[in-house]
């Protein structure tokens, strides 16, 4: 039943460990899990939550900052794991964007305590294509620059990587106004310039983590 879907279960799944005070290796390990599909094999059990979210049946989660964050994660992150390689992966992007933008306006974003909570609240601004995409990407770069500045010294490589990803996405949207790698999945015709970009295959979301992250992760493996 929809009434039994609790945002806390989403939160505990997506943030399984407290990174407060953790060393840099633990941060890289979680970043790899988040960004490289580590959660995908367990996402099927959350499919009912995604269906309910898309139907507006979980809008009561919007009453609190973390509830809002979890609804964003369900709509923005879960489809990418559940429906990778299909148009369905992007079907909730606009809904997630609207919820994220409302969270900026009502103070929920600022109320989030962890930089990673704020990171996932922010991601729909990068993911949702649309006429204001370039402006949103510029906002993300500015926020990422601030996050890097505020990060503890030992964690700066992590947030430098995050900034580089934001800058990479900004470059793509500035050049094309959309993500060309989605064109085949969405049935869109690619321009000559996009075809050259696709042939190169250097997609921002598929770039490997820095070499320093691999050594850090292997040290605790």
UniProtKB/TrEMBL annotation:
Highest taxon of source: Bacteria
Biological source species: Microvirga splendida
Pfam families assigned: DUF924 (PF06041)
InterPro entries: DUF924 (IPR010323), TPR-like_helical_dom_sf (IPR011990)
Gene3D superfamilies: Tetratricopeptide repeat domain, TPR-like
Protein's name according to its UniProt entry: DUF924 domain-containing protein
């Amino acid at each position: 039943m929809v009434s039994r879907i609790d945002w806390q279960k989403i939160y505990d799944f997506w943030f399984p460990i407290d990174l407060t005070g953790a060393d840099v290796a633990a941060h890289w390990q979680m970043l790899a899990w988040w960004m490289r599909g580590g959660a995908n094999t367990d996402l099927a059990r959350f499919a009912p939550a995604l269906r309910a979210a898309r139907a507006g049946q979980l809008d009561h989660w919007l009453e609190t900052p973390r509830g809002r964050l979890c609804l964003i994660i369900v709509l923005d992150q879960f489809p990418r794991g559940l429906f990778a390689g299909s148009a369905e992966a992007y079907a909730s992007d606009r809904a997630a964007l609207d919820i994220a933008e409302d969270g900026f306006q009502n103070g929920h974003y600022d109320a989030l305590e962890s930089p990673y909570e704020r990171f996932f609240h922010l991601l729909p601004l990068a993911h949702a294509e649309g006429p204001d995409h370039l402006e949103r990407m510029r906002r993300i770069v500015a926020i990422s620059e601030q996050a890097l500045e505020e990060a503890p010294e030992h964690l700066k490589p992590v947030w430098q990587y995050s900034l580089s990803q934001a800058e990479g996405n900004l470059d793509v949207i500035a050049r094309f106004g959309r993500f060309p790698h989605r064109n085949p999945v969405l049935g869109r015709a690619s321009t000559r310039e996009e075809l050259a970009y696709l042939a190169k295959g250097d997609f921002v979301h598929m770039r490997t983590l820095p070499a320093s992250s691999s050594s850090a992760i292997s040290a605790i493996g």
